[in-house]
Hints:
By secondary structure, chain A is mainly α. Helices cover about 80% and strands about 0% of the residues of chain A. Chain A is built from 13 helices and no strands.
Amino acid sequence: MSGLFEKLGTYLAYPFVRYALIVGVLIALCASLFGVTLVLKRFSFIGDGLSHVAFGALAIASVLKMTNSMPLVLLITIAAAVLLLRTGQNARLRGDAAIAMLSVGALALGYLLMHLFSTSGNLAGDVCSTLFGSASILTLTRAEVWLCLGLSAVVIALFVLFYNRIFAVTFDESFAQATGAKTGLYNLLIAVTVAVIIVLAMHLVGSLLISALVIFPALSAMRLYKSFRGVTICSAVIAVVCALLGQLVSILAATPVGATVVAANLAAFGVCCVMGRVKS
Amino acid sequence: MSLITCTNLSLGYEGREIIRDLNFSVNVGDYLCIVGENGSGKSTLMKTILGLRQPFGGSIAFGDGLRQTEIGYLPQQTAVQRDFPASVWEIVLSGCQNRMGRRPFYGKAERDRAKEQLERLGITELSKRCYRELSGGQQQRVLLARALCATQKLLLLDEPVSGLDPMVTAELYRLIRGLNREGVTIVMISHDVAAAAEDASHVLHVGRELFFGTRDEYLRSAVCRCFAPGGGAGA
């Protein structure tokens, strides 16, 4: 046991490991906060769709040989989020179908682009690491860490400031709109924020597993708590604990970061299910 | 001056017009019942009054100092709400948001107001309970309390008794009648003509034929006899 801690100590002495831990926890926290709203609004899959769009955008960035891909990826993903939200409203292309189409379309195009234009010798490895996150979180530069910290702070501040509004829009959009709330604006805010979270989270778990960060903590918390506040706080706690544990385990056991964090969330969901049963 | 005046209003959804040339007005203290077959545009009319949809033509004017955001609304329940984790308190308090301006958090005034409405509807002891675990009648009271937090002037109720058993239905009608006597103007959609005939002061019938008038005029009208043969005739 003491050997384990010693090993952990050695790893934590490296600044890039500490950065990765902090960034990972913050991203998981942001994702879980907005996850509650997305799950309740029946938008669980928007995370999935947007992350595939982000994958496609990343492919474009790598084809263009951009050194800093973040701004482009962020821009394209936000645009997709706003677009998805629009189609959800005018109902000609229903929400779930639109998301599914965008999701697989972007995935296919992204892979196609990477295949056609890739200069790297290890295409499969590149694709795999974008999809599953691999170790990329350990290679974050100082600038990226600051960007992540800044964006996370903004996301959390937005959530706290708009908490009551978000609740009203999530619970009953027509009532909120009828009593004068600018629901379109709040929906836009939610879409843009989710897009930002997803682009951030791609570094941690890769684009295939992001949905897990968004929906698992919320679903777990909903087994245990019955008020919106309770669910929100509980899902934040679960997300932080799982992100921390998952990352530490992945360091010690040399497992892929993203998959380990998601596995931790899955385990937490199981525990919450059992606790929920026992409670009721 | 009327609270709401609709002039030559035509409305519908997805480009299809379902009601045309509708004229009616709602005065302070009225209890207007909107009746009509399914699909005749009752809910669409309500959403148009609330500003959730644009009318195809005509106009809706608000008077007596009523602003569009001062209408309390009791929508039909959505699937989202049935398994939503929220406490009664959180929901009722959310009705106060239209008076918060740019403030992000509730103050004492909002909390007091929410408490008052809970008291008024006799659900104070439910305030910590989870909304989805309440009975249908209790849920409607919670949504009524929320609507009353938003306004004291005018309530729009969209089929408030659908899915409730007769006892609870009668109880809810009694409650709404009480609110009306306290000065809250009521506009209610109902498919229950008998109930409409009992409580309403005015009736608006939408469908192939339009009718607007007082309850007594409605009960004598041909529209009523076609729509509900025998129903409500004794009232």
